[in-house]
């Protein structure tokens, strides 16, 4: 086996300058989703995405994220990447499983159908404490968005040559 493949690859140089980023955030469980949004937004700006190139749209809940993502990507405005932020918590019924699965599949379908990367920033937690512990993931959502947007742009550029 090649030794070069056994080591983890170096982290990418994340620079979001010139990127147009859309964020869709669910209002349901706002103490969690609002905190995730704040961290993701701050990290995008830290990574050189201009605030005027970040569009934030709200959805009622995680279930509706894919519909809003599809609507955003069908407008004349070009987005390089979207981040969908939501929080689904376990309840007394299986509703959380249905909503989490629908959000996952819907968001993935929109990304694959459009070719625009969409970061899945939906927390699926057992309780509020578990969700709160995962709020720092908002930073990772932003970093993944920049990495994916840049990687997809590089691949498209290579294919044009």
Topology:
Elements: E1 21-26, H1 30-46, E2 54-59, H2 65-73, E3 81-89, H3 95-114, E4 118-125, H4 128-133, H5 137-160
Parallel strand pairs: 1-2, 1-3, 3-4
Helix pairs in contact: 1-5, 2-3
3D structure, described in words:
One of its GO terms (biological process) is riboflavin biosynthetic process. The chain is of the alpha/beta class and 161 residues long. It has one domain (30-156): 3-Layer(aba) Sandwich (Rossmann fold). Helices cover 47% and strands 18% of the residues. It has a four-stranded parallel β-sheet with strand order 2-1-3-4, with helices on both faces. The two termini are 32 Å apart. The mean pLDDT is 94.
Annotated CATH topology: Rossmann fold
- What is the CATH-assigned architecture? 3-Layer(aba) Sandwich
Number of domains: 1
Radius of gyration: 16 Å
Approximate shape: globular
CATH class: Alpha Beta
CATH superfamily: Lumazine/riboflavin synthase
Number of E strands? 4
> Mind summarizing the main beta sheet?
4 strands, parallel
Percent helix among the residues?
40-55%
Strand content: 15-25%
How many helices?
Answer: 5
Mean of residue pLDDT? 94
The largest beta-sheet arranges its strands as: 2-1-3-4
Which spans of ≥5 residues are poorly predicted at pLDDT below 50? none
Separation of termini?
Answer: 32 Å
Helix/strand/pairing category: alpha/beta
What is the helix/strand order?
Answer: EHEHEHEHH
